[in-house]
Amino acid sequence: MRYSNYGVIVSAILALLALGLLFFKGFSLGIDFAGGSLVQVRYTQNAPIKEVRDLFEKEARFKGVQVSEFGSKEEILIKFPFVETAENEDLNAIVANILKPSGDFEIRKFDTVGPRVGSELKEKGILSLILALMAIMVYVSFRYEWRFALASVIALVHDVILVASSVIVFKIDMNLEVIAALLTLIGYSINDTIIIFDRIREEMLSQKTQNAAKAIDEAISSTLTRTLLTSLTVFFVVLILCVFGSKIIIGFSLPMLIGTIVGTYSSIFIAPKVALLLGFDMGKYYENEARKIKKAQEKEKMRRLYEGGQV
């Protein structure tokens, strides 16, 4: 636990910086949440990005168009806000017509999300994160103690804030892929934390020590190898996905890559330390456990008396 104080301080500073980014700069909402269209176009030659951008700028209703290289010099990704069309108009055909002067091309993907659907997806995405955190808190409270539950949720919020801010830093659009990465991170991080908490409980129940900090140190030391090996395995898999995967999944792979590091760090340095800071006491823990055992014994005694017809 001697390094955990530094860990908490570093995390607090990083979390404050991350919150500053979230509140003052904010996310760049992708089409999943803001509504709009995404068009993937492949040319037979090098894609004329500037020419494509100029062609769309000439069209009054196509405002805020973003054109970027996608995977290779022949492919581009075109993003633009939601465009109102008449019933007899085909947006795909309109875009194809605009692109005609730019050369030989093929529209490989065309996705459109309306603003109402985008708003609903945003609300559901936020709700899913909140429900996940609440469910985890209830489970950990039931299995361990409320201080451990609160500590685990604080660590998870810390992870989500840092990873979410990295989305802003790396200029990734906030889409459903990012929400999926954050939910995956929550599950991955709490798994690491639960393993450490399990070991802490075993150390406490063995009653080898009355010192909570020492019990936590022993638990972290005994699970450290397993935690690091698991994290490295996940890290390298996600790293390969991030490096060699398509840019279309960068909203999932990069947050997961950062989240693997942050989640492992918080499980070791943040969650156990926060439980101590919340006032976890070994003496009170043993008293509670003794009461539970006594209550269970009394219930068992009453059950036997009832079965024997003495009650």
TrEMBL record:
Coiled coil: none annotated. Keywords: Cell membrane, Membrane, Protein transport, Translocation, Transmembrane, Transmembrane helix, Transport. It comes from Helicobacter pylori R038b. The keyword Phosphoprotein does not apply. Gene3D superfamilies: Multidrug efflux transporter AcrB transmembrane domain. InterPro entries: SecD/SecF_arch_bac, SecD/SecF_bac, SecD/SecF_CS, SecD_SecF_C, SecD_SecF_C_bact, SecF_bac. One of its GO terms (cellular component) is plasma membrane. Part of the Sec protein translocase complex. Interacts with the SecYEG preprotein conducting channel. SecDF uses the proton motive force (PMF) to complete protein translocation after the ATP-dependent function of SecA. GO terms for molecular function: protein-transporting ATPase activity. GO terms for biological process: intracellular protein transmembrane transport; protein targeting; protein transport by the Sec complex. It holds the Pfam family SecD_SecF_C. Belongs to the SecD/SecF family. SecF subfamily. It is found in: Cell membrane. Residues 98-279 form the Protein export membrane protein SecD/SecF C-terminal domain. SUPFAM superfamilies: Multidrug efflux transporter AcrB transmembrane domain. Its main location: membrane. It is a multi-pass membrane protein. This is Protein-export membrane protein SecF. Forms a complex with SecD. Part of the essential Sec protein translocation apparatus which comprises SecA, SecYEG and auxiliary proteins SecDF. Other proteins may also be involved.
